[in-house]
Amino acid sequence: MPLRDRLIDFCDHYGASTKGPLCVALVVTQHARTLGLPLQANELLTPKGGQVSGLGRDAVQKILNRHGITRLLAAEGGRTSRGSIDNMRQYVSFLNELHRNAFADLDEIETFWIKKVREFFAAQPLKIRLDPSKALRNVVRDVFAQAEERQRESTGTNYAGAVSQHLVGAKLDCTFGPGKVDHNSFSTSDSQTLRPGDFLLGTAAIHVTTSPSEAVIDRCRENLDNGFHPVLITTRRGFPVAEGLAHNADCLDRVEFFEIEQFVAANLCEMAEFEAPNRRLAVTDLVHRYNEIIDDVETDPSMKIEVQ
To answer: Per-residue pLDDT for 157 more than 90?
Structure first.
């Protein structure tokens, strides 16, 4: 059986895909690099025998950083987990068996666990942490920052673009009521559905993009030629780019431009009636509608948002 299949079997049998066991696997693999195989499980305990030696946040994050992962896997690096010692013993036994059978390629083993860490992060919902002292714009900004970070760590999914589109869609539904605009998956292009934009509301063709390009400006020009009023919603970084492209295309004064954080935050303030006690309810309502949209049009539940 190939090494990868053996690792998968071990992971499935011992449930080693949660953050505690992942921390143990990373640190013990590092011990195997330093001490060599076979390992002695008792030698990997702290002097009092109550914890796994070297198991902590800094040690885990150092390993993750080598692979370009900066997100925190576990605040204590799995150190406080009651099952860490048992997890260590099971994993040491597994590594030693691999060593006896000449399968213990530690580079491949570490790569496997790093992939599992990436999968763990990708399966988690985005978080909204409501801090009464912070402006709602900062709350929205933090969600986009998480989406961008996840996009950097993953391949094949434009998290930032999808989150932007569906947050705008949820905002429109909260303002005008569900059913006023159609929702489509982020991967569905306008040309596939003959849509004038990501959303059509009255005569307004709304385009949501994190990376403005000449193509979206061309779509705005087509909107104008077809009697629609183009609205372009983008990020803080994208805003001046979009205006510059529109200026070059000679349609700057005919397109509405909005910065997405402000666009969503303004609606939250209105939903809360500008009253601090209503902020949580407003955010919860927006997130609830957003998550419903994700359920309806996307297949990746990690795009969902959780209010903490």
So the answer is: no
**Is 206:197 a contact under the CB 8 Å cutoff?**
yes
| CATH code that applies to domain 126-307 | 3.40.1350
In this structure, are residues 108 and 289 in contact, taking their beta carbons and an 8 Å threshold? no
Structure tokens at 283: 């955010």
| Beta carbons of 236 and 208 less than 8 angstroms apart | no
On the CB side of 216, CA atoms within 13 Å amount to 27
Lowest mean pLDDT among 71-80, 255-264, 279-288: 71-80
Are 197 and 190 within 8 A, CB to CB? yes
Percent of the chain with pLDDT over 70: 95
pTM recorded for the entire structure: 0.71
What is the number of alpha carbons within 13 Å of residue 244 lying toward its C-beta? 8
Answer whether 182's CB lies under 8 Å from 169's CB: no
Ranges 3-17, 187-201, 241-255: which has the least confidence? 187-201
> Domain boundaries in the chain?
3-122, 126-307
Calpha distance 133→52 (Å, rounded): 39
Burial (CB < 10 A; 0-12, 13-18, 19+), residue 275, is: exposed
Q: CB count, 10 Å around CB of 258?
A: 18
Average pLDDT in the 189-205 region?
Answer: 82
Q: Are 264 and 168 in contact (CB under 8 A)?
A: yes
CA distances from 138 to 43, 62, 78, 151 (A): 48, 29, 31, 20
Under the phi-then-psi rule, with left for phi > 0, alpha for psi from -120 to 50, and beta for the rest, what region is 184? beta
Quickly count: other Cβ atoms within 10 Å of residue 91's Cβ. Answer: 24
Residue 86, both tokens:
């048992």
| 143 vs 250: CA distance, rounded Å | 34
Question: For 165-178, how does the pLDDT look when each residue is reduced to its tens digit (9 = 90+)?
Answer: 999 999 999 999 99
Least trusted range by pLDDT, from 165-169, 193-197, 261-265: 193-197
